[in-house]
From TrEMBL, chain A:
<dbReference type="Pfam" id="PF21180">
    <property type="entry name" value="TOP6A-Spo11_Toprim"/>
</dbReference>
<keyword id="KW-0238">DNA-binding</keyword>
<feature type="domain" description="Spo11/DNA topoisomerase VI subunit A N-terminal">
    <location>
        <begin position="76"/>
        <end position="136"/>
    </location>
</feature>
<dbReference type="GO" id="GO:0003677">
    <property type="term" value="F:DNA binding"/>
</dbReference>
<keyword id="KW-0460">Magnesium</keyword>
<dbReference type="GO" id="GO:0046872">
    <property type="term" value="F:metal ion binding"/>
</dbReference>
<dbReference type="InterPro" id="IPR034136">
    <property type="entry name" value="TOPRIM_Topo6A/Spo11"/>
</dbReference>
<dbReference type="InterPro" id="IPR013049">
    <property type="entry name" value="Spo11/TopoVI_A_N"/>
</dbReference>
<dbReference type="InterPro" id="IPR036078">
    <property type="entry name" value="Spo11/TopoVI_A_sf"/>
</dbReference>
TrEMBL record, chain B:
<keyword id="KW-0238">DNA-binding</keyword>
<dbReference type="InterPro" id="IPR034136">
    <property type="entry name" value="TOPRIM_Topo6A/Spo11"/>
</dbReference>
<keyword id="KW-0479">Metal-binding</keyword>
<dbReference type="InterPro" id="IPR002815">
    <property type="entry name" value="Spo11/TopoVI_A"/>
</dbReference>
<feature type="active site" description="O-(5'-phospho-DNA)-tyrosine intermediate">
    <location>
        <position position="123"/>
    </location>
</feature>
<dbReference type="GO" id="GO:0000706">
    <property type="term" value="P:meiotic DNA double-strand break processing"/>
</dbReference>
<comment type="similarity">
    <text>Belongs to the TOP6A family.</text>
</comment>
<dbReference type="InterPro" id="IPR036078">
    <property type="entry name" value="Spo11/TopoVI_A_sf"/>
</dbReference>
<dbReference type="GO" id="GO:0042138">
    <property type="term" value="P:meiotic DNA double-strand break formation"/>
</dbReference>
Amino acid sequence: MEGKRSGSQQHCDLLRKIREFTRAIVEELSNGRSPTILIDRFRNYCTNPNANCCCSYDLSYGKEILTFRKESHVHRLDILLRVLLIVQQLLQESRHGSKRDIYYMHPCIFSEQSVVDQAINDICILMQCSRHNLNVVSVGNGLVMGWIRFLEGGRKFDCINCPNMAHPIPVQVEEVKDIVSVARFILIVEKESVFQRLANDQFCNANRCIVITGRGYPDIPTRRFLRLLIEKLCLPAYCLVDCDPYGFDILTTYRFGSLVSKWPMMQNICVAQRYAGLELFLQILKNTVFLSSASFLLQEKTRGKLNPC
Amino acid sequence: MGDLRKSSMRFFSDQNLCYADILPPSEIRARIEVAVLNFLRILASPTPAISDLPLINRRSSNSRASKGLLTQVSCVFLSHSFCTRSLMRANTAKAFIRVWKVMEMCFGVLVQEKRVTQRELFYKLLCDSPDYFTSQLQVNRTIQDVVALLQCSRYSLGIMASSRGLVAGRLLLQEPNQEVVDCSECGLSGHAISGDLNRLETLILNTDARYIIVVEKHAIFQRLAEDRVFNQIPSILITAKGYPDIATRFLLHRLARAFPDLPILALVDWNPAGLAILCTFKFGSIGMGLEAYRYACNVKWLGLRGDDLEMIPEQSLVPLKPRDLQIAKSLLSSEVLQENYRRELEIMVQHGHRVEIEALYFHGYDYLGKYIAKKIVQANYI
């Protein structure tokens, strides 16, 4: 639920929600009742394969009820509250941490990383926000170059001076301000090697554009940054991917969001995109595409990609 | 002073050390042409034969350690043992052909005065000769074969390293006639180290730091950069996000040469792979043994070490995997590993567990900065 509000406003809202949530639990307990916590369940696949896929993916299809009456629930709530405490600390101190860092803070209690991951997902659903709103981030993986200039947390990214120099995409996308660009389109490439080839061939000298790569499957900061650029600059976006199931999967991740995440962050990430069919790229495509004439057999894994359900 | 070091190394191990020259494209093209002419000469001689390719052996059996005489820098280098790729033997026939195919590709690249990465070379070869090349690893090994055959550096062949390392902290970088980049203002992500060795060579460096901290993992680098640890302890942070690539080592070596009074301290996980990464920065590697020795630096082991274990809760200890034990074995068998590192490694293997640096977060987020500061102040590094 990305609002147009500033980052600090969102932090305050979240801290308030955390306090209210905790207060509700304490009140129930002091009245001698077991608190009831409702966590929405979401589906991440289409239920009707014959329909035109405008299914309401963003509506929950039921709720999970956690109470103190079951021991497994108590354990789960214990973990959730501990993680919530750490998240509150991160927000109050304006710090960022990764999921792994959180696990290591109490490794005895969080017996496994997956336990922490589930707690973070639950908190995202309860607070109706995305993971990055909780200041839980991982290392940034995207790169950007081209005719763009912006500020991030006091630092100036000036790609206009040398449009063929790659810069890492900032992880704290809410800190990105003052975007100035003279580009005419945005080009998204799947692979780092293609990105580097474009940089070495001084692609941005001949073309007024912004080139972005997520180096494979794009992470959240890359997708958020892309969405920010599209909103602020209103430029068409073209995507250059390999002609194989992984390429299409990456294309759909940019377009619709990830199938893996349960909470529909998709509304944050939807981007109007077009498939790259420009003549210009056919030369590069020839070198990077597994042509059918090379009789490249689809492995089982890639075949599996075609049927995610 | 740099020249003195170089010549001292030559003096000490001149007869034994094999090195790859860094040459301009015209010379490499000449070497390739000579290789082809030699082959044809023997083929067209009265007793025709298909000559084998003599390659400098890149195995540990051919590696030697050089303990610096006038310097404190030890390194690993390759000696004059050769292995041959022959068309006449069934198991090396394909490898033989691969070497020629890569040489042909590189010749083409040099003629066009371009630079390609190993990945691009892989795709070109895959389209060109799919029968002989099936994986990136094969292409990388074949490139090293060509380096061993022609005795020239990979960069001279027109193959560019990809940019993988990051640097942050109290360092001012300037490319000639460009703006100065202040690495302390680079945010969480740091400044990306270019893969082009020529560009790195011409960088103008300025610093007021007192230490250089080499970090194994990207996540730790990001944490230290976010907390601006380099302002509390005046330092430069550098990471290769895992096993170091040539470009990162090149830059570290340049920093070590430009600022010889700055101790270089490494922060790695307590496991054999972490120590292996430290050793690669410190001594070089066998895989790229003909070039890697040039960039050896006097890196010291800051953490994590055996005596830090008392600060780590038991649950953060993870059992060693078979791969870890394999790495430990090969490290222990290397003659360049110094005594105190050997002891630490033996403790690691005996203990049977490994620890990640993130385990220190048990004491709070800011504990890592304090830990580093304490160790530096106590000069607790080996």
